[in-house]
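Reviewer 2 asked us to include a model.

Predict the structure of this chain.
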Amino acid sequence: MKQSSRELIRGLRHEAGKVAVMARRTWILIVAATFLHGVLAGLTVDRSLVGLAAWHEIGVVAWANYSRSADLGNGLVLYPGLAISGALLSLGAAKFRILCTEDDADTRDLIVLLLNSHNCEVVTSASSHDSLYLARTQHFDLYLLDNWLPGSSGVALCKKLRRFDSKTPILFYSGAAYDHDKKDAEESGAQGYVTKPADGDELVSEVLRLISASRLSRN
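Predicted model (C-alpha cells):
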C-alpha cells in the first residue's frame, strides 16, 4: 500500500511538472504570436517595436489596448489568455503621468476618464500659468495641450515648456484643425497633433505611441 501511495505521488509530481512545462511554453507562444501578429497586421516593424516597449512599461492589458487601437491586432480578442495574465502584471506597473492643459471642464473630465482607464495618471490644469508651475515642479511623461487657452495659446505654452524641458513629448488635442495650426504646433516643439472631436482610441494610441517612442530614444 505504501509503495502504491509513493508511486501515485511520484506520478502526480511527474504530471504536475509536465503541466508546468506546457504552461511556460504556452506563455512563450502567446507572447511570440501576439508580437508576430502585430508585425504582420501593422506591416511596419517599428510600430510593433513601439508596441513591445509599451508592453514592457505598462503591462500586457494596456499594451493589448494600444495594439488594437494602433491596428496591430485585436490583442484582447485574439489572445484572452494574454490579457488575463496582463491584468495581474499591470497591477504593479507604474502609471504614465500626463499633464493636461484644457480650459473646458467637460473635456477635461472626458480625457481623465479615458486615459485613467489606460494606466495613466492625469493631472489637469485650466491655464498656462498653472501648467508651467506644475511642469517645473513635477515629473510628467507627456504634456497634452489644447490650442485655445484663456489669455494665451497652446503654441505659446509649448514654446515656454521647451525653454526648460526639451525631452518630454508634447501632444496637442485641439479643435484648431487648419494646416497652419498643426504646423505652428510642430514648429513650437510638439511631436503630435490630434484634432477634436477625435475617437478615444486615436487619442490613447497617440499618447502611448509618443511616450513609448520617447522612452526608446532615451535608452
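Confidence is low (pLDDT under 50) at residues 39-58, 70-80. The beta strands are 96-101, 120-125, 142-145, 148-149, 152-153, 170-174, 192-195. We have added this to the supplementary material.
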